[in-house]
Amino acid sequence: MKITKTKIKGLLIIEPDCYGDHRGWFMESYNSAKFEEFGITTLFVQDNHSYSAKKGTLRGLHFQNKPMAQTKLVRCTRGEILDVAVDIRQGSPTYKQWVSVVLSAENRKQFYIPQGFAHGFLTLSDDVEIQYKVDNIYSKEHDRGIRFDDPALGVEWGGNDFILSDKDANCPNLENSDSNFIFEEM
């Protein structure tokens, strides 16, 4: 397993070992003991699976406020996405900064996103499936979003003609959201 740190502390790109032969391949997408060797002790409690039919579908930027905040471990199991995490922890030295990574069925990369980050993705192909683990259950009451095109964030999605839900199209900018994350050293 290879773990790569990003420019924002806590955001990690994980590349599981994959073993193949003439029959196909095998990999462990998650192994708590191996993750602990790298300092990741998150206890995941829910698995989510998302399907997007069309290239250009943008979902996000989503998060859950405390006390129902979620750490995510995201992977793309069909197709390809641009996955994005934005630091929304007030007082953080990387507040409003973001990291993106291409996740695909081919590259098998995963993106570890701690609590305090908004998450979104853009499908780069048709027929995309993503699966992700979270460390807190879904809470409609705490579910929030911020604008994918908030100029204060400047996320580079690589275009501007996206397929959006009504919910995502009407999210507030970060400064008008009720995000309740305050930076605490990890």
Which architecture would the CATH scheme give at its second level?
A: Sandwich
Write down the overall geometry.
Answer: globular
Low-pLDDT residue intervals, each spanning 5 or more residues = none
CATH class type? Mainly Beta
Can you identify the CATH superfamily?
A: Jelly Rolls
Q: Any idea how many domains?
A: 1
Helix count, DSSP H or I runs of 4 or more residues: 2
Instruction: Enumerate the strands of the largest sheet in spatial order, edge to edge or round the barrel.
Output: 1-2-10-7-12-5
Give the structure's gist in a few sentences.
The chain is mostly beta strands. It contains 2 helices and 13 strands, in the order E-E-E-E-H-E-E-E-E-E-E-E-E-E-H. A hairpin with a 6-residue loop joins strand 1 (2-5) and strand 2.
3D structure, described in words:
With 186 residues, the protein is mostly beta strands. It has a single domain, classed as Sandwich (Jelly Rolls). It is 5% helix and 39% strand. It has two helices and 13 strands. Strands 1-2-10-7-12-5 form a six-stranded antiparallel sheet, with no helix packed on it. The chain is globular and about 55 Å long. It starts with a strand and ends in a 17-residue tail after the last helix. The model has no long low-confidence stretch (mean pLDDT 96).
